[in-house]
Specification:
The complex is a heterodimer of chains A (100) and B (147).
Chain A (H helix, E strand, L loop, with lengths): L1 E5 L2 E5 L3 E2 L4 H11 L6 E5 L5 E2 L1 H16 L4 E4 L3 H9 L7 E3 L2
Chain B lengths: L3 E5 L2 E10 L6 H14 L4 H20 L10 E7 L3 E8 L22 H8 L2 E5 L5 E8 L5
Antiparallel strand pairs in B: 1-2, 2-3, 3-4, 4-6, 5-6
The chains are: A alpha/beta (100), B alpha+beta (147).
Chain lengths: 100, 147
């Protein structure tokens, strides 16, 4: 996973899967990177082939952290299988989802 | 990837049997085996994606809720695929739970509690039987036709 800082924004990319086995480390690493005041987070999901409910929980955690700073979380370019779980769980109501 | 077969009525139904260690890191590889088995039998990609989603959630729950005394006992899995449907049986060693008749999605801000909702949303039938030797979660998906 790669985390880049662009001003007040973090860009997270290179996440192959986001599930029960790595959701905690994903949440921890990104929230650590937000400690310098980055309030907006872009999560590039173009390389992500799988997200499960634990992965969604990690994304919601980021959403709550960013919202607390009056920031936003955007989910970029989800693959169709990931888009499916985002729609099923109504995540489009809290995240801005930028499709391809 | 090949499995064996189980007789259902008068029909031999392809069967894949798997053992999953109580380790969340193993779930995806076991799910990939189930996926390959189903695709090899001509199941459509969309129905396999649904099954994989439900299967992973079920396995995650079986591992996450296993008590310490059951951590050395693997989760036993059967995948059956007939012309009509795809069936998963996931035998866990948790304390079990009462499967509610209706499962509403949790609040949008909740970080947990979506597993059963996802399973119920993508599968056609979900049953849970508690037993002294373990519990069995049965998931059924009707097939849309061979690809």
């Amino acid at each position: 996973m790669k985390i880049e800082v662009e001003g007040d924004k973090l860009r997270v990319s290179g996440v192959k899967e986001l599930g029960a086995s790595n959701a905690s480390s994903f949440r921890h690493d990104v929230r650590e990177a937000m400690r310098d005041g980055q309030k907006n987070v872009d999560v590039d999901l173009s390389d992500t082939t799988y997200v499960d409910s634990c992965g969604l929980g990690a994304l919601i955690s980021l959403y709550k952290a960013a919202s607390g700073l009056q920031g936003t979380v955007r989910l970029l370019h989800p693959q169709p299988s990931v888009q499916q779980i985002l729609e099923l769980t109504r995540m489009h109501r809290i995240f801005e989802i930028v499709e391809n | 990837l090949t499995g064996t077969a189980q007789t259902v009525g008068q029909t031999q139904v392809p069967l894949l049997e798997l053992q999953l260690a109580c380790d969340l890191g193993q779930v995806r590889s076991v799910a990939s085996e189930a996926r390959s088995f189903l695709l090899g039998l001509g199941c459509q990609e969309l129905e396999v994606v649904d099954c994989e989603l439900a299967f992973v959630e079920a396995c995650n729950n079986a591992i996450q809720y296993a008590p310490p005394t059951a951590k050395q006992t693997p989760v036993s899995i059967q995948v059956l695929c007939s012309a009509e449907d795809i069936l998963f049986r996931i035998m866990d060693h948790t304390l079990g739970f009462e499967l509610p008749a209706r499962i509403d999605p949790p609040g949008l801000n909740n970080e947990r509690g979506r597993g059963l909702f996802i399973i119920r949303s993508v599968m056609d039938e979900v049953m849970y039987d508690r037993g002294p030797e373990g519990n069995v979660l049965t998931l059924r998906k009707k097939r849309k036709g061979r690809s």
